[in-house]
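Aim 2 progress update. The chain analyzed this quarter is reproduced below.
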Amino acid sequence: MVKIEHIGIAVKDIEAANKTYRKLFGYEHYKTEEVASEGVITSFFKCGESKIELLEGTTENSAITKFVEKRGEGMHHIAFAVEDIHSEMKRLEKEGFILLNKEPKRGADNKWVVFLHPKSSNGVLVELCQDID
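Predicted structure tokens:
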């Protein structure tokens, strides 16, 4: 794992959250993107070398919509940048971590992503990210 790539924060209203984080950071988000396959719209703020990703569910069945309904707004996941997502998946599986997807899928911000089940990482949803070349 190379660095903390981003911290994902689940929100009810991405526009309202953008205003809050604009005030917090003192500058605008640099990107908004819909990931239709996951039923989310995302907004990214740079914070040093890392990013904050705001996520709003766009469908009733979206994991983000369900998360907000059950737990309210707040931290959803922490993402780590990796150089080789396939080898990192194999390594972590051998270490006993539970992968939520067996193959990387296309995520926001031009990344391949895979998630680790929170039960295997002390209650934290962990995302692995690798830039798509």
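The first strand starts at residue 3 and ends at 11. Strands lie at 3-11, 31-35, 40-47, 50-57, 74-81, 105-107, 111-116, 126-131. These observations will guide the mutagenesis experiments scheduled for the next reporting period.
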